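hey
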């Protein structure tokens, strides 16, 4: 194929994906697609007619308007494409089948026990995927692949989990390769924070926001940064690890090799341990803080201070205007939101340009599985 033909094919695929990506978020008319993509109406009609012929798109009844021609909205056919999602954390492996609009068709949960061999977890997860697909033979034919979301850091380029804290048995596991041995579908991976960031942009509260950071706070500190509508990644396909920003240059040594990392102080187990283990969980701290207990309020204020230090560094580097929190930190979230709003405004370089928004991640039912399955949709629609 000559260069001109290759370029024409690339442009065709690019425009097709652009249209599909827009329609994966909402139904739009041809005129609206032309406005948002910058393509001519005739070009939009050629592409959409082709996709309608393949039954990838559906055309709905025209919406009546007071004047002018009534537009007929287009949408993706929910029966055409789906993906399986595997969301792995330190307690369980959540598995499900998801259509392109983020609707879960079936879900299952596999518990993970301390020191359980990795191969046993993967064998069980693969068996559950096969079981779900047997229950949905029509969906199996339209399966684009399997998305795997795991604790970070990860190397997307090699499909490998690197060295997440409190997850030592999974260190350096080539999870994509291992799952390919067990399942015959394409495997796509991401870390949990990145997956949740993209999920919030496609299905959640950040649909209208193209620049934000998702901060996942539980047994570790994970982060996903969306810049200009795209997930930020560096070498080896790795994402920024805000949990390993130094907040105390003479602080505790971290397993990553750095000193005084945010994660050493703000990851919830580390925070609770520093306060003598007086509270068994973050939820217990927040319940007590809501009742006005002084020690619980001190823990809340300390955590807000740690997170504000990390958030400030990111805001000053990337100039984002919204921070989305996810994970265990969402328990009684208005208290944390209030504490952060008190600490953040005076610290960032953007303070004179506009307020920094702090909000909770979308946590609708099965959001974790949907975020994992969406890794596949993103690979197909946004690449």
């Amino acid at each position: 194929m000559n260069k001109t033909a290759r370029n024409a094919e690339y442009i065709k695929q690019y425009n097709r994906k652009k249209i599909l990506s827009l329609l994966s978020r909402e139904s739009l008319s041809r005129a609206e697609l032309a406005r948002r993509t910058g393509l001519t109406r005739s070009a939009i009609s050629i592409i959409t007619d082709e996709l309608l012929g393949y039954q990838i798109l559906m055309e709905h009844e025209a919406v009546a308007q007071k004047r002018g021609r009534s537009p007929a909205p287009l949408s993706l056919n929910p029966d055409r494409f789906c993906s399986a999602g595997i969301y792995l954390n330190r307690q369980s492996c959540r598995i499900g089948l998801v259509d392109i609009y983020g609707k879960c068709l079936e879900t299952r949960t596999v518990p993970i026990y301390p020191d359980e061999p990795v191969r046993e977890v993967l064998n069980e997860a693969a068996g559950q995927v096969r079981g779900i697909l047997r229950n949905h033979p029509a969906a199996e034919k339209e399966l684009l692949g399997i998305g795997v979301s795991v604790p970070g850091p990860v190397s997307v380029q090699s499909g490998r989990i690197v060295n997440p804290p409190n997850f030592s048995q999974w260190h350096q596991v080539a999870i994509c390769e291992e799952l390919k041995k067990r399942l015959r579908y394409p495997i796509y991976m991401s870390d949990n924070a990145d997956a949740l960031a993209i999920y919030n942009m496609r299905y959640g509260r950040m649909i209208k926001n193209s620049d934000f950071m998702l901060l996942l706070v539980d047994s570790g500190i994970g982060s996903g940064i969306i810049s200009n509508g795209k997930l930020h990644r560096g070498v080896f396909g790795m994402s920024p690890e805000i949990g390993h920003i130094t907040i105390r240059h003479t602080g505790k040594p971290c397993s990553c090799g750095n000193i005084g990392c945010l994660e050493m102080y703000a990851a919830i187990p580390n925070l609770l341990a520093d306060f003598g283990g007086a509270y068994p969980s973050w939820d217990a701290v927040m319940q007590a803080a809501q009742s006005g207990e002084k020690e619980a309020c001190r823990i809340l204020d300390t955590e807000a201070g740690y997170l504000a230090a990390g958030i400030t560094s990111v805001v000053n580097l990337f100039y984002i205007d919204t921070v989305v929190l996810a994970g265990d930190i969402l328990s009684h979230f208005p208290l944390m939101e209030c504490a952060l709003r008190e600490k953040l405004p005076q610290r960032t370089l953007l303070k004179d340009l506009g307020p920094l928004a702090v909000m909770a991640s979308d946590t609708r039912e099965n959001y974790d599985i949907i975020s994992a399955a969406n890794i596949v949709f993103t690979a197909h629609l946004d690449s």
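The radius of gyration is 23 Å. The first helix runs from residue 3 to 23.
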